[in-house]
Amino acid sequence: MRITRLEPGEVFVFGSNAAGVHAAGAAALAHERFGAVWGQGHGLHGQSYAINSMSGLGILRREVAGFVDFAADHPELRFLVTEIGCGIAGYTPMEVAPFFARAGENVVLPERFAAELDR
Q1: Do the beta carbons of residue 27 and residue 40 sit within 8 Å?
Q2: Which of 61, 78, 83, 117 has its CA at 20 to 30 Å from residue 92's CA atom?
């Protein structure tokens, strides 16, 4: 599913770099359409939530854990997750999807992540 617009209360969750240089891919879309802030590489900004996916798998795991906790604290929001880490960062859904195993009902995972978690 390609996300091109959001309803009120929806948040676009994307992979970023630590410096918050949102120049390509989902990060550029988040910056152009959903309020991602240039220079901010993680957290909620506008209708976007940045997860640092470019600083190693251990950091990505911690960033996702923080996001999952944030989503649990905000059940009024619906989080639409992109295939974080599976583009420029070079990871596979098999590597990244397990990090989202604790995600609640308000977190919508991409199909390949959901399929990995259903295995």
Answers
A1: no
A2: 78
Residue range 61-111, pLDDT digits in tens: 999 999 999 999 999 999 999 999 999 899 999 999 999 999 999 999 999
Rounded-to-10 torsion of CA 33, 39, 41, 44: -50
Sorted by sequence, the CB contacts under 8 Å of residue 10 that are 6+ apart come out as 47, 77, 78, 79, 80
Place of tokens 């251990």: 58
Q: What is the CATH number of the domain that holds 113?
A: 3.40.220.10
Contact present, 67 and 59 (Cβ < 8 Å)? no
Number of domains in the chain: 1
